[in-house]
Amino acid sequence: xxxxxxxxxxxxxxxxxxxxxxxxxxxxxxxxxxxxxxxxxxxxxxxxxxxxxxxxxxxxxxxxxxxxxxxxxxxxxxxxxxxxxxxxxxxxxxxxxxxxxxxxxxxxxxxxxxxxxxxxxxxxxxxxxxxxxxxxxxxxxxxxxxxxxxxxxxxxxxxxxxxxxxxxxxxxxxxxxxxxxxxxxxxxxxxxxxxxxxxxxxxxxxxxxxxxxxxxxxxxxxxxxxxxxxxxxxxxxxxxxxxxxxxxxxxxxxxxxxxxxxxxxxxxxxxxxxxxxxxxxxxxxxxx
Length: 288
Hints:
Blueprint lengths: L1 E2 L2 E3 L2 E2 L11 E2 L5 H12 L8 H7 L17 E3 L2 E4 L4 E4 L2 E3 L5 H8 L8 E7 L3 H14 L2 H19 L6 H11 L4 E4 L6 H5 L2 H9 E6 L8 H8 L3 E4 L12 E2 L9 H15 L2 H6 L4
Parallel strand pairs: 3-4, 9-10, 9-11, 11-12, 12-13
Antiparallel strand pairs: 1-6, 2-5, 6-7, 7-8
Helix pairs in contact: 4-5, 5-6
């Protein structure tokens, strides 16, 4: 999402909608852009939304009050842009890696629990890299009570992963559940659906009930899952390091598993708010 110069804060769902009335066009609803829109709404910006998505964006359960699209959206003299590859979000003079609404952090913090029943959590899109990583995890993490059956599963998983696109994701998930009964590891494309990107309570509940959150590389080394894990009080387990993880506590997937202590988890949460929110700055830029 990038428009220079005069900004009309009006989000269009498809390329078919007239560009003349909707110069800010959101084609594929990346989470980066969705969270930015939610942050703008939280800061009382008037954001025009397609009627089909307005109720989802402004659902009270997500922490936002209902707000009708303005009949004459006002012009804003600043640049709003997002770059997913870096990542970078820019609103006028404000530059952040990502921008989340503060209400997201407040909502998940209220649901933190000291009694987390799931060991390792992962839910995400299937790639060969992630498949091979899961095979390594099955081999290294299965405890002695799980070892005999998990060994069989590992061999089957390896063969399925070698088939790449021809394997059944449903069967892979079944084998993962069998090999790692203490964990919640699932390959799914649910996160690619716009409505689930807005608010996936099932995914958040998994993070809130998990001790460790597996954060493998995706399209880039950095991943949303890392920051969502820090917000939910999970210990992030990374595959590769990137500069955006500076200042956070985490472990590497090849390290011996160890839970972060309460001080580290609290520090991660505080760092996330400082790193990823800017409600006061957005309020100061609010169009008059």
